[in-house]
Structures are given as C-alpha cells and as structure tokens.
Amino acid sequence: MVQSLLPSICAQVRGDLGVADCDWALHPGGQAIIDGVQRVMGLADERLRATREIYRTRGNSSSPTVLAVLDRLRSMDMRKEFVVATAFGPGLSVEMSFLRSCSIPPTSH
Question: How do the domains of the chain map onto residue ranges?
Fold first, then answer.
C-alpha cells in the first residue's frame, strides 16, 4: 500500500520528491516493523532516527506513539520539509498522513 500510494502523493506535491526525501514518523510497533518499513521503502537510517529513539526510550505504547515521534522529530536539527506519519492499529490497520514541516519565526516580547 505504501509503495503504491506515496509516490503519487510525492509527485503531486513536487515532481522530484521521493519517499526517501521525506522524514518518517513511524509508529514504533516493534523492531521488526521499523526494520521492515526501512527495508521495503529503501530508507536511510537517518530517516527513521526519531522513530528509533522513541522506540528505544518509550517502547511500543500504542498507535498514538507516532505523536511522540512527531514531537521528537520536530526538535531535531536535521529535518526534511516533508514528513510521512504512519500509525498501525488493531488488526494491522494503517493510518498515514503526508505532512509539511513549517517554521514559526520567533516572537519578540
């Protein structure tokens, strides 16, 4: 599903954008899921760094864990403009969002 859906979304957003050009906020449902998605999608280690950190520090605490991954990714120095957020639910249902990172200028007080 991911391989068939994401390339068309990436092409609509920007013609030269590929799935490896995005950061990934993957629900850390277990080492096998993280490794499997990385292998199938051909992702570099750095694209899943926030996912692996949250899995290492918090484990698999259910589908909303992807929100913790997004929060961690937001605080990292090296970020891509686009993020693929994916969560897995009961019966291996999949929920996916294609997000664009934005920068908010600091406010002066």
Answer: 2-100
Strand partners, 95: 87
**Pairing assessment for the beta strands 82-88 and 23-26 based on DSSP bridges:** parallel
Number of Cβ within 10 Å of residue 38's Cβ equals 18
φ, ψ (nearest 5 deg) of residue 83: -130, 135
Q: DSSP letters along 44-99, please? A: -GGGGHHHHHHHHHH----TTHHHHHHHHHHH-SS--SEEEEEEE-GGG-EEEEEE
Q: How confident is the model at residue 108 (pLDDT cuts 50, 70, 90)?
A: low
Which residue is listed with tokens 């859906």?
A: 5
Overall fold of domain 2-100 = Peroxisomal Thiolase; Chain A, domain 1 (3.40.47)
Whether the pLDDT of residue 35 is over 90: the answer is yes
